[in-house]
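Handoff note, outgoing to incoming analyst
You'll be picking up this chain. Sequence as last confirmed:
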Amino acid sequence: MQGPHILTDPANTMMEKQTPRALDRTVDDAELAKFAAIADEWWDPDGKFRPLHKFNPIRLELLRDRIADHFGRDPKSARPLDGLSVVDVGCGGGLLAEPMTRLGASVTGIDATERNIEVARVHAEQLGLTIDYRFATAADIAEDGRQFDVVLNMEVIEHVADRDAFIADCAQLVRPGGLMMLATLNRTPKSYLFAIVGAEYVMRWLPRGTHDWRRFVRPSELAAPLRRSGMSMTNVTGVVFNPIKDQWSLSARDLDVNYIAIAEKPETATTGSQ
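Most recent structure output, in case you need it:
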């Protein structure tokens, strides 16, 4: 997944298990199979993940700036995320984990597709990057009691079996005072036209069936489970594609297709009411 990252600790029990929890309620085997089938193409900018390669610079800029602002860093410095811990949930082949590492963060990348983790490890090792990649789910890592300054949840939530449970698992990974960044697709007529008909059938950017429009998520459908998990959604930014210029840009108003939400956990974490 990321859906829309290398060195491992041999003593870590999650790596010894080699499988995410068999009964994890958020895992959808059919969705995992889609990405396993194309895992070897993660780093081909002209392959099946071409849209993510085009999308990556603009979302990375937003993540860098929002994280730096939250933690009082200079986003234009060489390593603005120095000293911060980041977990990339559904890290895929490492398209975000690698640049986040270069920005100074200590990155853990997890994915429920084993082949994705294998591809990510090899690529990072070839570039001399140290990233802790694990074949695991958010629930696995939460069970170990680990927490991070930043949880990245990018293009994953529209592929899980239980959205609210997945958000709750990810929220457990956010330390008090930390952030969760969620990128997904809005469930609107426009997103059906652009993300399904346009991207999969007309432009053929993605294999047909990559997305199920019924699983797209309205911002309000993120806010409620986040609140129940002790977090508050503080910002939502649209990411808009211009087919004439063949480029992505950020928009404060156009949330109709792609968007990135920012959620904060207070320093004194509490579980929200129903």
